[in-house]
Amino acid sequence: MRYRRFRDEEGVTLLELTIAIALFAIVMGATATSLVSYYVALDMQNQRHSAIKDCATILSNMRDVRNTNPDDFPDAITAVWPDGTTIPNAGTLPQETITVDYVNPNANPLEVTITCTWVDMRGRQLTAALSSVLADH
Fold first, then answer.
1. CA–CA separation, 60 vs 130, rounded Å?
2. Could you tell me if residue 121 is left (phi over 0), alpha (psi between -120 and 50 degrees) or otherwise beta?
3. Biggest alpha carbon distance in the chain?
4. Secondary structure (DSSP) of the chain
5. Which residues, including other chains, have CB under 8 Å from residue 128's CB and lie 6 or more apart?
6. How many CB atoms within 10 Å of residue 114?
7. Are 99 and 117 in contact, with CB atoms under 8 Å apart?
């Protein structure tokens, strides 16, 4: 009678289990890295959207002033927002600052650029700008 050194048993060996766990860990690590990158990009896009929305709010306020005082254009707008005006903590973003600039503050039409600057979660300073031309009716 011959004895076998190794018996055929059902189940998995320790080596097979170790390899399976290692592969699972690699796949989970790659998935986690992808998700973190996705959420960082999503947060950046949301911040840009908020910045443009805050600039658009200022521009809308300028249009309201123009519509309220049509005979005093562009002086009514430049009186409220002088050239180079900085509005600290104007919006919803961390350390957000909004700056209003004109090409020529006395011109008609009035070319305006509204720039929003803020700090993202990594501490980098980011900027978004919105430009428009305002004219009297």
1. 12
2. alpha
3. 114
4. -PPPSS---SS--HHHHHHHHHHHHHHHHHHHHHHHHHHHHHHHHHHHHHHHHHHHHHHHHHHHHHHH-GGGTTHHHHHHS-TTEEEET-SSSTT-EEEEEES-TT-SSEEEEEEEEEE-TTS-EEEEEEEEEE---
5. 48, 51, 52, 55, 115, 116
6. 25
7. yes
> Average per-residue pLDDT in the chain?
90
Instruction: Retrieve residue 131's tokens.
Output: 């430009």
In our burial notation (b when 16+ CB lie closer than 10 A, e otherwise), range 45-83 reads: eebbebbeebbeebbeebeebbeebeeebbebbbeebee
Q: What is the pLDDT of residue 62?
A: 93
Give tens-digit pLDDT for 10-64.
778 899 999 999 999 999 999 999 999 999 999 999 999 999 999 999 999 999 9
Whether the CB-CB separation of 106 and 83 falls below 8 Å is answered with no
